[in-house]
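Handout, section 4.2: multi-component inputs.
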Amino acid sequence: MISVKNLVKEFPKKDGSVFSAVDDISFEAADGEIVCLLGVNGAGKTTTMRVLSTVFQPTKGTAEIQGWDIRHDPDKVREQLGFLSGDTGLYNRLRVHEFIRYFGRLYSMTDADITRRMQEMADILDMNDFMDKKIEFLSSGMKQKVSIVRSIIHDPPVMIMDEPTSGLDILTARNIISFIRSCKERGKCVLFSTHIMREAERLADRIVLIHKGKILAEGSLDAMRSETGQTDLDDIFVHYVNLYSDEEEVQADEF
Amino acid sequence: MNFKKVMIVFRKELMEVFRDKRTLFTTLLLPVILYPVLIVGFNAIMARQSNVLEEQGATVAVCDSVQSAESMRIINDLTKIENFKFIPASDSVQSLYQSKDIQGIVTIRDTINASSLRVYHVYVQYDAANERSNMMYGKIAEALQETEQEMVREKLEISGIDPELVNLVDLRKRDTADSQKKMGMLLGMILPYIMIMMLLTGASVVAADLVAGEKERKTLETLLVAGVRRIDVVIGKYLTIIFMSMVNLIVNLFSISFSLRYMLAQSG
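Output:
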């Protein structure tokens, strides 16, 4: 499971002030649950995920992945999670099986385990035709399948996916979506981010609305519907954003 | 540091490097082609060039302001130089020289020195930045030296002095170093610098590909979230760069040694 506690990530700006990409957010995602980080571009989704996957250090606050702290045990955290994003690159000069084996070995897996698991995934994702091909000759759909196997080769309990469907065609995107569902079925904790309302609606058990680095609302779609009185997720999103902007304006008026 | 993971990174990076045609070309193939072409080819061109220059010869304007038997003799000896053409100097001689129609101007004057002897001054105007003009100067200087020696010898004989008197001390050197040893000394002076340069630049293509290339192709994030410590990634990549730089150096040194050997064999 993932538990985020008062996480803050600031970046220094050129004029010396700081920009808070993630501003004191807290949420949880349990095992067997799909949680969606929903927000417009620049809301802080990617930054949150990068902090959770230990690419960035948090400025304040922390998070735990399967009980491991991202500040103190980043190595343990990385062993517990699979990370997938829409535009991760692959090593073009390697063959598919070499590429997957490389990451398996980095996760300290034995060669026998890697071979077994690779075969399993290749059967599920229908990849047996191109396991021996060099990655540079693959189509983007095939590449995305390779990325999926790479992210899950070590069978992590937590999956973090940063806009996994961005830039993909319908069929490939469907592959990803069914992959996310199968993760949940296997009891994994899944955190994925998107700015596409439809995807969030179809997949998420719980939605975390994030805007300008802050959490606007959190809960199941049904709970949000009853709270706002809207049925469409687009409208619900706009409702919360307007609420937030009003608050800001009020605060500004007070001074 | 986890040595096992360092080696995983190292092996994978090497595999990628050896599959990259661009890197293979710059680190392995280029030195193999470059040095033979540079050393052997350049030498051959130089030799050919000087042959061509000598065959071309030169046109020289002569101004004899003495007009004595001896000055005539000097000029006569000069005209024996192969492929050289001598023309009498006219008023337009400087403009001919400027337009490179002639390669030099020889002027002969004379003075009487302290021992009341007539001394001939041969002024040679030439362009040191021009290969043909340079060659002309060398040939004329050579011819003049021979003429001078002969003239001195004749004068001494007339005065009843043994011409051998001018050669009382005879310097003869016996060099025990063969051409290979001489080349060894020359290389010993320049090789350390060349090696430092090669070590620094040899694997720069690999280094750029391994670090900047990873960010450019968006694989860095994947690697950073994988189950490996950053220090292991850095050391693994560093080993790859050192390894490739050594390979590059060895190939370079072999190529240089082969080319020089070939060149020495050619020149004898």
